Fold these 3 entries.
Entry 1:
Amino acid sequence: MKNNLYNYILTIADNSLILAQRLGELCGHGPTLETDIALTNISLDLLGQTRSYYQYAAKISGENKTEDDIAFLRIEREYKNCLLVEQPNTHFGFTIARQYLFDVYHLMLMEKLQQSPDETLAAIAKKGIKEVSYHKRFSSDWVKRLGDGTVESKEKMQEAIDALWRFTDELFFMTDAEKEMAKEGIGIDVSEFKSTYYEEVSEVLKEATLAVPESKYFTKGGKEGIHSEHMGYLLADLQYMQRTYPNMQW
Amino acid sequence: MSEREIKNLEEIFEARIARDEKIEPKDWMPEKYRQTHIRQMSQHAHSEIIGMLPEGNWITRAPSLRRKAALLAKVQDEAGHGLYLYSACETLGISRDELYEQLHSGKAKYSSIFNYPTITWADMGAIGWLVDGAAIINQVPLCNTSYGPYARAMVRVCKEESFHQRQGYEIMLTLCRGTEEQKAMAQDALNRWWWPSLMMLGPTDDQSVHTEQSMKWKLKRKSNDELRQQFIDQTAPQADVLGITIPDPDLKWNEETGHYDFGEIDWDEFWQVVKGHGPCNKERMKARVDAWENGEWVRDAAMAHAEKNEKRKIAKAS
C-alpha cells in the first residue's frame, strides 16, 4: 500500500518537476519581458508543487529520504513523468502547446484530487488548483493568439500542436500504481476524463482557428520510466551538483 | 519660448529640487534632466534584464529544490524590476522598443558586472552577497531622488534587493560551513567577484563625468569613491564571518581614518569590459538580441490577434 502511494505521488509530481525544469531553461530568453516573467512564474509554481509532493513522498517512504534525494538521486528509468513534459522548448509555439496540452489535463486532475480522502494530497491539489488555472489561462490565451495571429504564427502553432499531439494519449494511460490507488479510492481514474479533455482541447484549437490533429498514432512509456532521448540530458543538468558533490548541504 | 522664459522655468525647477520636491512626468524639466534620467534609468533597467542571464545560467543546475525555487523567484524579481524601470523611463517620453533598440545596438550600456561568467554554484552566492550588496549601496539613495517615478520604483526594488543580498550571503555561509570543497568553491567565487563588484561603483571621482550634475539633481548623494569605501567597510567584516579571504593584500583596517584601506583597482580591465570586451559581453548581447529576434513572430502574432479582436468587437457592437 505504502509503495503504491509513494509511486503514485511520483507519477503526479515528476510531471511538475520536469516541466518546471524545461521552463527554467527559458529564463531571460523569452519573446517579451512579460512572457519571461510569466514562464518563470509558472515554473516556480510547478516547482513549489513538486516540493510539497516530494516532501510527502519522502515522509511515507520510511527510508529517511528528503525531497532532494527523490529529485536528484533517481535515474531516468525511475522517473515517472509523461513524455509530453520532457519535450524540448524548440520554439515558443512548442512551449505554449506543451504547456496548454498539459495544463488542461493538470487542472482536471487537480479538481478530482482535491476530493481525495488522502488529506495531504487533497491539500496540495487544492492549493495547486489556483496556480494551475492561472497556467491554463495563460497557455490557452497564447494558443489563441498564436493560432489566430499572423500566417506565420498560425503555421508555427499548428506545427507544435501536430508534433506534440502524439504524447497526449499517455496522460490517460494508467500504470499499475495508479490503478491500485484508484481502486482504493485515493487516486484518480484519469481515464474517466479523457473524452472531456479532448473535447475541451478541440474547442480551444478551433477557436484558435487551428486544425485538431487526426492522427491516432500515440506514444507512451514515460510513466513507466521509458523516456525519450531528451530525458537523459535533462537529468544530467538537473542532477549535476548532487552527483558531483554527494551528501552535502546547500 | 524665449530664453528668458526658459531661464525662469529653470530657476523654478532648481528651486523645487532644492526644496526636495518630487518632479513628476507632466512637470516642466530641462531637456538635459530628461536625457540624463532616460540614460540612467534605462541603463538600470537594462542591467536588470541582462542580469537575468548569469543567474539564469544556474537555474537548471541548482543543487537543491529549495535553492532552485529561490533562484527562480529572484530572477523573476529582476525581470519585474526591469519592468518597473522601463515603465518609469517611459514616463519621460521614450518607448520601451526604442530603449531596447539602444541596448541591442550597443548605444545604451548596462552594468559591467554582468559581463562576467557564472562558472560555479558559489557564484550565485557571491552575486547575491557582493553584486546585490554593491547595487544596494548605489540604489538606496535613489529612493530619495528628485524624479518621482524613479524614486518610487526604487523603494520597491531596494526592498527586494536587500532580500536577495541576504539570500546570497546565506548561500555563502552554507558553503563556508560545509565541506572543504564547498569552502574552496566559495573562496574561488569571492576571488573572482570581488574586484568586479568594486568596479560596479563606477570610475574614481576624478574620472566620473556625470557626478557633478547628478549630485545637483539628487540622482547621486555621495561620490563613487565614497560609495565604494562604504561598500568595502560593510563587506570586509562579512568576509571575516565567512572565514574566507578578500583577494586584496593591501586591504587593512585603518584606525586613524576609521575605514579600510584597499588596493588599486585594475581600471584597464574596467574600461575594457565597459567598452564591450569583457569575458561575456558578446554572449550577453547575443542572447538578448536572439531572444528579441526569435520572439518577433510572437510579438507580431499578439498584435495581429489584438487587432482582430478589436475589429470583432466593433463589428459586434454595430
Entry 2:
Amino acid sequence: MSAALALGDDALVLSHRLGEWAGHAPVLEEEVALSNIALDLLGQARVLLSLVGDEDELAYLREERAFRNLQLVEQPNGDFAHTIARQLYFSVYQHLLYERLAAGGGELADLAAKAVKEVAYHRDHAEQWTLRLGDGTAESHERMQAGLEALWRFTGEMFQPVEGLDATGSGVDPQELEDAWLSTVTGTVERATLTLPTGPRTGAWTAGAGRQGVHTESFGRMLAEMQHLHRSHPGASW
Amino acid sequence: MAAVTADQKTQSTSGTAEAAGRTAGTAPDVADAARLAVFDAAVAADDRIEPRDWMPEAYRATLVRQMAQHAHSEIIGMQPEANWITRAPSLRRKAILMAKVQDEAGHGLYLYSAAETLGTSREELLDKLHAGRQRYSSIFNYPTLTWADVGAIGWLVDGAAITNQVPLCRCSYGPYARAMVRICKEESFHQRQGYELLLALSRGTEAQHAMAQDAVDRWWWPSLMMFGPPDDASAHSEQSMAWKIKRHSNDELRQRFVDICVPQAEALGLTLPDPDIRWNEERGQHDFGAIDWTEFQEVLKGNGPCNEQRITQRRRAHEEGAWVRDAAAAYAAKHTPSVPDAQQAQHVEETA
C-alpha cells in the first residue's frame, strides 16, 4: 500500500505544520479553524498509515528519506497568506483526488468518501481566505500574491505518478487532475484580483522529488521536533 | 424544564422592573430602589438575571471582570499545552491534544460572547488583556517542561477549574451560567484524558513514571493556588456570594479539590508533594500543608516564570494578525451592500 503511505504522509505533514499555528493565529476563529483542519488531516493520516503498518512506527521512526509526502506540504508556515496559499494549492488537489478515489472504487474508496467531505470544507476555507486577502487591503493583496508565487514551484509535483496508486484499483491517474486543478485555482486567483504565477511548476529538482523521498531542508528539522520524544524512549507506550 | 421556568420568571420580573422605572420616572432614587428590590428578590429566588434585566452597576462590573478573566485564561491557557503539540509522542495523543487546545479557543469564544451581553466587546477586553489591565489565571504562568506536564495540567489544572466552575453553572447571571454548562462538559472530558495520560506514564517505563511524578510535584501547589487567596484575604468573595455569582468560598472549594485528588493520586501510583496531607477523622476531610502565598503574590504581580513570555506571545499574535483582520474588514466593506444602497432600493420599491 505505498499509495496509502504517500497520501498518509501528505496529511500527516500538513497537519503538523498547521498544528504549529496553535496559539499564534490572527483571530480566535482561525485558532479553531486551523486546528480543525489539522485534526481532520491527522485523522486521515492515521487511517492511511494504519493500512500500511503501525501508525506510530511509521510517523516517528522513519527518517527523512523514507517519507513520501509532497514537498509542498512540508513548506514552513510563513505568514498567514503563505499558509493560505499552501492550503489553496493542496486542498484543491486533495479534493479532486479524493473525489476520484471515492468514485473509482478500489481499496481507498471508503476512506476517500469520508475524507472528501472534510476536504471540501478545507478547500472552501482556503478559497474564502484567498478572496479576502487578495481583494482586501493593498498589504494583504501583496502578501497573498507573494505566497502564491513562493509555493508555485512545488505544485507540479502533485501531478506526478503516485507509486502503487494503480494497484489500489481506483483507476485514478494524478496527471488527469491537472487541468481541473489549474482551472479551479485560476478561477479563485482571478476572483481574488490576483495573478496566477508564471514560473516553472516542474523544475528538474522539485518534480516528483518528495514522492521519491527527496525533501527540502526544513523538513529534517520538522521531523527532529516531531520525533524527538518518541525516539528518546524506545519501546515505550504512551 | 427548570431552565424554561427560570427564564419565564426572569421575564416577568424584568417586566416589573420596567414598569417600576416608568411610573417613578420623576423620582430616580425611588425608581432605583424599586429596581434594586426586584433584582434582590430575583437573586434571592434563584432566578436568572438576563442581559436586558436591570442590574446594579457593581454587579455588572464584577461579572465583566470575572468573565473577561475567565475568557483570557482560556486563551492564554492554550500556550502551555500548544507548546507540546508538535512533540506529542503518539498520533493518538497528538490528536487529543490538538482537540483540547481547539476546545479552549472555543471556550474563549463562548465566554467573550457571554461577556458581550453586558455591554462590552471582545476587542475591548482583548485590548485590556494586552495592556495588562485585566488578568488571567496565575496557573498559566508556569512552564510545560516535559510531556507529562500535559497530563498534569489535564488532571490537576482542569480538575481545579472544574471544581471552581461546576457551581458557576448555577450562577445568577444566565448567559454565564449557560456558557459554563457547555464548558464544564468538555472540561471534564479533558480532565479524564489528562488523568489517563498520567496513568499510562505511571504504569510505563521507569523513566516515564519519573516524568509523571516530577510533573505532579511541580503542578500540585500552583493548582491549589487556582482557588484564590484564603477566605480571610479574599477581596471580592463576600459580595460575589451575596449576588450568587459565587456559591462556595475559596477555602471550601480548595478543600473539596484536595479530598478528590488524594485517592486519585493513590490510584495513579503517584505521590502528592505535601508531607502534611493526612486524613482528619474528626473533620471528615484531609488536612494539608501551608500554601506559599508569597509565590502566589509574585506570580500575580507578573513575576512568575512565564508571565512575560505568555503576554508577549499573545500580543505578537494579535499584532502580527492585524493585517489579516484589516483585510477581512476591507473585503466585507467592498462586498456587502452598503446601507445607503439598501435604503435607496427600499425607496425605489416604495415609490414604484
Entry 3:
Amino acid sequence: MSFIEYGDTIKDGDTAIVFLGHESMFPVKVQHGTVTQTKYGVIRHSTDLIGKKYGSKVTCSKGGWVFILHPTPELWTMNLPHRTQILYSTDISIITMMLELKPGSIVCESGTGSGSLSHALIRTVAPTGHLYTVEFHQQRAEKAREEFREHGVDHLVTVTNQDVCKNGFGVSNIADAVFLDIPSPWEAIAHAKSALKAEGGRICSFSPCIEQVQRTCLAMEEYGFTEINTLEILLRVYNVRTISLQIPDLGKAAEDNSGTGFDSSSPSTQGSPGANLQQGTVQFKSGVPLREMVGHTGYLTFATKS
Amino acid sequence: AMEGSAGARIREGDCAVLKRGEVFKAVPVLRRRKIIFEKQWFYLDNAIGHIYGTTFEVTNGGNLQPKQEVEETTTETKEAGTDNRNIVDDGKSQKLTHDDIKALKDKGIKGQEIVQQLIENSTTFRDKTEFAQDKYIKKKKKKYEAVITIVKPSTRILSTMYYAREPGKINHLRYDTLAQMLTLGNIHAGNKMIVMETCAGLMLGAVMERMGGYGSIIQMYPGGGPVRAATSCFGFPKPYFDNLHEFPLSKVHSLLSGTFSTETLPSDPEDNALVEEESNGLTEEKQTSLQETEEEPTTEAPMEINQAEEQETVDINAEDVEFKENKEKENKENVREKQMKQWERRKKLTETAALLREKNADGLIVASKFHPTPLLLSLLEFVAPSRPFVVYCQYKEPLLECYTKLRERGGVINLKLSETWLRNYQVLPDRSHPKLTMSGGGGYLLSGITVVLDKGKSDSSNLEALKMEEPSPKRCKVQDLHC
C-alpha cells in the first residue's frame, strides 16, 4: 500500500484504517507482533491483518468484528492526529479543482499544519508532480516529514521549516499552483507570485475571516493577479430515515375504516402492521439533514497569475 | 512532460476556451473561421502563437489584437457625491442618444473611448457616490469594451462553462459537486476506473485529467456509443486514449451471468457508423458534436438549446447526410475494410470484457440521467473491496432508494448522502457581501466504500451492519425531546 497506489493485501509497515462502524474508525500502523485494542477486543497484526485482503472483515478477540480499509487521503483526513485545525475533504475538493491540479503539477503550500491537505495534493500530483510545503513550526514540520515517509510519499514532497511570509517557499518560477492557509496571507502574496511559473499559474488562499480576505484580495490585485474570486462551500449531509407520520383522526374512521386512500401496509413498512391499522400512519423515506452542520470553515479566494 | 500546460501557446487545431467576464465558450482554433461569441464576431487567426491566458481586443475587421495594459483614464477631477438625495430619475441624464452611440460604434471608435464619452455626457455622474461611479464604469466597460481572453481548457473551466451554458446536458451537475466526486472517488494516476455517465463526456474528461494518462478507464455507455463531446473539448494528447475502454451497458447482465459473447453484438448500420466515427479521431470537433446531435432528441428538452447553437446543429446535420452518403459509396467499394473494423471492434470489446471480469476496479463513478439503483447494484460487482464509489443524481429521492438497496445488498460501508452549497462573494473595500444570487441546486451524491461481501451469511451480518452504522430511531427521538 501507499497513499498514491492501491495494493490488494495488507503488508507489514502499512498504515491501515480500522473501521468500527458509523463514523467510528482509526488508523493503525501494521507491525508484526503488535496488537491493537478495540472495543470489540484485540486485533493481532501478525495473524489478523498481515496477508489479508484490504476490505476484509476481521473478527476481534471478543467476537465482534471490524473492517480493515486501504488508506486514502480522505480517510486519513477523517482520522489523522490533529496538530492544528485542518482542512476537510469538501474544501479540499474545490481547492484541487480550482487550482487545476493533476498528475505532474508542481504545488507550493503553507502551512503544512497537520498534513490533511498535503496528502490530498500529493495524491493528485503523483507520480510526476511535486509538493513544496512550508511550515514555520519546527516540531510540526518534522512530524509531517515523518508521516510522509511512513506513507511512502516522501519522494513527492519537500518540507521546509521556515516562515513563508519572510522567506517564501524556497523555490522560484516552478509552481503551477500555490495554496495559502496562514493567518496573514497578504504578507505571502509576493512570495507566491515569485514561486509561480513565469508563464502563470493559480493561487488559492483560505481564511476564516472576511477582513483577512479583503486584505488578501487587495494584495493579489496589487501584484497583478487576475480572475480574483472568493467563494465558500458548505457540505450538507443527510441521514436516510424511514419516517412514520400519524394520520389525524377526523372522525371519519368510524364511517369508513379502510377507504382512506393511505396504504398503511406498503412494502417499506417495517413497524408492526397492527399498530398502523389502529392508529393510521403513512411511512416514507426521507433524507433528514443533520441537526447540526458545519456552517463555516473559511473563505476560499482564487486568482490567476498570467 | 505530457502533463505540462502552463505557458503553452495557442496552436491551430487546438480546442480553446473563450472567456469574457464570467462567460465561457469552447471553440476549435481554426484559421479563417468566423466565431460568434457574446454578440461579437471575430477570427482566431491572430491568436495563434500567443500564450494561453492572453487577453485580446476585437478590432473592426474581426481581428484579435493582444490588449495593451493601459493606464486607467481617470476623470480629471475626482468629484463625487455623498448620497443620492438629489438624484432624480428623469431618464434624461445621458445626453448621448442611442443613435449617437451607434454612430460612434460604426466609426470604429474604441470601446474605452465610448465609455469615456458616456461618462462625460452623463449629467448625474459627478453627483453619484464614488462607489456608484465605480459601478457605472464597470457596467459600461462590460458593454462596450470588446475584450476576450483565450484560456486553456481544464475541468475547472469546462465544468463551469457547461453548468452555466448547458446544464441540461450534464444533468445539472454543478462544478463543486463534480469536484467532490473526484475527491471522494480518490481519482488519481494509476487507477483502474469504471465511469458511467451521461454528462456529454464531461465527467469522463474530468477523470481523465486527474489520471493524467496513467492507469485505465472503462466507460460504460447506454445506446449505440459513448458521448464524448465535452471530453474532446479538453484537448487531451492522443496517449490518453490508449487506455480508455468502453463497454455497452446492455451487455452488463450477460457479462455478470457468464453468457456474454461478442457474437451476439447488435450490428445495425447506425451502430457501426458511430464506431467508425470514433476511430476517425475523437478530438475532431465535428464528429463528436455529431454524436451529441444524435443524442439530443431523446435526452434534451429543446428549450435548452439556444438559437445560435440550433443553427449550428442544423448545419452539421446537413453535412452529416452528405458525410453518410459518401461513406456508403466507400463502404460498397470496401466491404473488407468494414469487416476488418467489425473484427477490431469485437477484439476491443473482448478485451474490455476481460478487464471487467477481473472484478478489481479501483472505483466507480456514476453520473447519469438513469435511475442509479440498478446501475450500482450491477456495476459494483466489478469493483475491488476497499475502494470508493460515488453516485451523482440530480434528485435526492432515487438516492434514498439506492441507499436502502445497497444496505440490503451489503458489501458497502460508510454510506453517505450529501449535497454541497456554493456561495460566491463580492470582495471590495467597504462593499463585501455574498453575491446576490446563488445556485439553487447542484445535485446530490451518494458515496461509500466497498468491502468484502461474505455471501453465506449476508442477511444476519447486514442487520448487524445496519445497527452498527445507523443510530436507532428511538434514540433520536429522545435526543429531539431534550432540545
